[in-house]
Structure formats: structure tokens, C-alpha cells
Amino acid sequence: MKTSWPQPLILPSILSCDFGNLQTECENLLKNGADQLHLDVMDGIFVPNISFGILVIKSLRNCLSKEVVFDTHLMIQKPEKYIEAFALAGTNVFKFHYEAEYSGLEEMSL
User: Fold this and answer.
1) pTM for this structure?
2) Topology given in CATH for the domain delimited by 14-103
3) pLDDT confidence of residue 106
4) Per-domain residue ranges for the chain?
């Protein structure tokens, strides 16, 4: 029996973009084959770097087609506190680190 695997997706991280031209950079990524956009959110606590947050995601969502999938990687403390705000800002898919002082899946309900 032959196994059918799903097609791989291309999700470039926007961290490598020029943030002064973020809309154009993201449009170019999508035009050149990106299936979704990967957004790395870092708080400077869970990981040593700081990137961007809810306001940038909301602004980007307002600039791009609603059909563009935002795959958001939350590298932050207590990610469950912010899930709803990130969802309202335009995040479609969440990834987070369970060990980020996360109190458990049973608390999440969207």
C-alpha cells in the first residue's frame, strides 16, 4: 500500500524582511511562491530576542488579503494569555512552546 503524503508548504519567516517595507516584502514573498507567512513573535523573556507583536500583525493583516494564512510562532511567556488578542489581530495558526509557563490545554477555548 502506497502512503499519500501531503504536499509541503513554504512558510518564510517575515523576520528576514525589511520592516520599513513590510507590506511590499510580504507581497513579494507571496507572489514568489510562499504558501503562508510565518510570524516569529519573541518577548525578550522566553527567548533573549524581541521581535514584534499584536499591533504589527494587525497592521499587516489590514494590508494583505484576508486569505493569506498567518502562522504565528509565539516564543513568549504565558502564551495562553495572548491567544485571543493574536487571533483578533489576524493570526490563523498558532505554534507555541509548552514549557513557556503554559498552564495547560484544558484552559484554551476559542
Assistant:
1) 0.86
2) TIM Barrel (3.20.20)
3) 53
4) 14-103
